[in-house]
Amino acid sequence: MENIYDVVIIGAGPAGLSAGLYSARGKMSTLILEKSKTGGQIATTEEVANYPGSIEHASGPSLVARMVDQCKEFGATIEKDTIKEVKLDEKIKVLVGEKNTYKARSVIVAPGASPRLLDVPGEKEMTGKGVSYCATCDADFFTDFEVFVIGGGDSAVEEAIFLTRFARKVTIVHRRDELKAAKSIQEKAFKNSKIDFMWNTTIQEIKGEGLVEGVVFKNLQTGETQEYMANEEDGTFGIFVFVGYIPQTQIFKGILDMDEAGYFITDDNMKTNIPGVFAAGDCRVKSLRQVVTAVSDGAIASVQAEKYIENNFHE
């Protein structure tokens, strides 16, 4: 007999794992598919201090490991495969992967979104060691240190303002000679005595052994480069990169409704424009992308998938 799952979940980040936990615990046959490693962005986070209950200095990997164990304990299956094609219009959904083809009564899409990288030498090596893409996650680690914020849009400037609560000095580094952020946000930044600006400037290289120790800036007008090193007392400083996110939604274009940036448009119940297909986590339009909101999305999507199955698949 052909295996048709009640729920197939695409993505094993916090949203997908939360959905998997709720689905499996609800006695639905549940498959979670992940193309790379489980955990999504949180798997690269050294400490998760702002997730409720994380009082034992839980790291991203340790929190993910617990989530995975919970899913498996209740009967969810986790497999590694990359979905290349989806057929969602029929009552039974078909997902075509590199390894296998999967069929499901409902689908929860939770592929996440990845920060847009600077793509400079040292960036990947120093990620989590001074280079961050989330001020809410990591600002506390830079209390009384200096930090640089890369970017000039709403997110970059808002996060720079937030960082002034912790860092002693925040420098916004922008490749243009004026910010792209909304005027009201700009005004707050210009009035903040802790914020400085480096205009027409990009990062060329990030240096350090174990922690960020130096950075090479390039002035786009003069072509000159300048190396900045951490002062001896601090030994390090922070680099927060806010040059956009890339939602991992490409294979759903023209199938599921998205905004201009490629994020899924859902209602409060995680429903997409196709019945039986739900979206959860950083891949959807939302105001806050954090672990706590991702797991909430996953739980809601799972409960709604269960209701959908009850209403549409009568024995």
Automatic annotation (TrEMBL):
EC number, UniProt record: 1.8.1.9
Into which EC class is this enzyme placed? oxidoreductase
Keywords of the record, alphabetical order, are: Disulfide bond, FAD, Flavoprotein, NADP, Oxidoreductase, Redox-active center
How the cofactor is bound: the record states: Binds 1 FAD per subunit.
Task: Please list the GO biological process terms of this entry.
Answer: removal of superoxide radicals
Q: Which reaction does it catalyse?
A: [thioredoxin]-dithiol + NADP(+) = [thioredoxin]-disulfide + NADPH + H(+)
Name the cofactor(s). Answer: FAD
Q: Which family does it belong to?
A: Belongs to the class-II pyridine nucleotide-disulfide oxidoreductase family.
NCBIfam families (UniProt xref)? TRX_reduct
Its recorded name reads Thioredoxin reductase
What organism is this sequence from?
Answer: Alkaliphilus pronyensis
